[in-house]
Amino acid sequence: MSYICLIGNENGIVAASDTRECLGNGSYYDNRQKVFSDKKQNIIWACCGLTVCDGKDYLRLVEFIMRDNKTTYDEKIDYLERAVKKVTRETYCRLGNGSAMDILVGYMGKRTMMTRINIGGGYEQKKTFFAPLALEGGCGKDLVHKMPLSEYNTLGISELKSYAQNRVREVIYRDMSLSYENPHRKQTVGGRVIYQLLKRT
């Protein structure tokens, strides 16, 4: 499932992640983009978990919903819930917990809003918050301490970018260290650090 994060305040939002894509057969690739933005719509998102199953690319499904410029932010969140619940329910019997997805979405309107959707086996948890806020998803979120609000509350957009990138590097390093210490442990966070950002103008 790897790691994604969304960090934002009233100056902007940054989405960052590793590039590890873990597949159901135990193999993985380290070149998958999991963070995206649409600056015309002032939205940014990150997703991880179930990516490709039975030839269907679920990250592309999420991107299709998010880039639809005829829908509002609330409509996009509603469509995401319904679509991802459907696909995770369909694959739950075969993959078990491997059918989960984490989706983090940010929107810069009059205020900066951020939503986390966690879906597994057709069951979901969804919460929407106002920034400043840091949201995390994937198995890597439990490897390091949570991000203190005081550290990013007033950062400018370039500082937010550096903060998010360093956070992903820290999670990748921690996961590698744990796997090195325990050869039987499967490393699920890795690859490069990538990011997208939205700046309030």
Tell me the total number of β-strands. 13
- Mean pLDDT score: 89
Helix fraction, binned, reads 25-40%
Segments where pLDDT lies below 50 for 5+ residues? none
CATH class: Alpha Beta
Query: What is the ordering of alpha helices and beta strands?
Result: EEEEEEEEHHEEEEHHE
Shape: globular
The named CATH superfamily: Aminohydrolase, N-terminal nucleophile (Ntn) domain
> What integer value in Å does the Rg equal?
16 Å
Total domain count? 1
Distance between the termini: 34 Å
The major sheet is characterized as: 5 strands, antiparallel
* CATH arch. level architecture: 4-Layer Sandwich
Strand order across the biggest sheet? 5-6-9-10-11
Helix- and strand-based class?
alpha+beta
Strand content: 25-35%
CATH fold-level label: Glutamine Phosphoribosylpyrophosphate, subunit 1, domain 1
With helices defined by DSSP (H or I, 4 residues minimum), what is the helix count?
4
Could you explain how this protein is built, in words?
The chain has 201 residues and is an alpha+beta fold. It has one domain (4-199): 4-Layer Sandwich (Glutamine Phosphoribosylpyrophosphate, subunit 1, domain 1), CATH 3.60.20. Helix content is 30%, strand content 33%. The protein contains 4 helices and 13 strands. The protein has helices at 58-66, 73-95, 149-152, 157-181, and strands at residues 4-9, 12-17, 21-22, 28-29, 35-38, 43-49, 52-53, 56-57, 101-108, 112-120, 123-130, 133-137, 194-199. A hairpin with a 5-residue loop joins strand 3 and strand 4. The protein is globular.
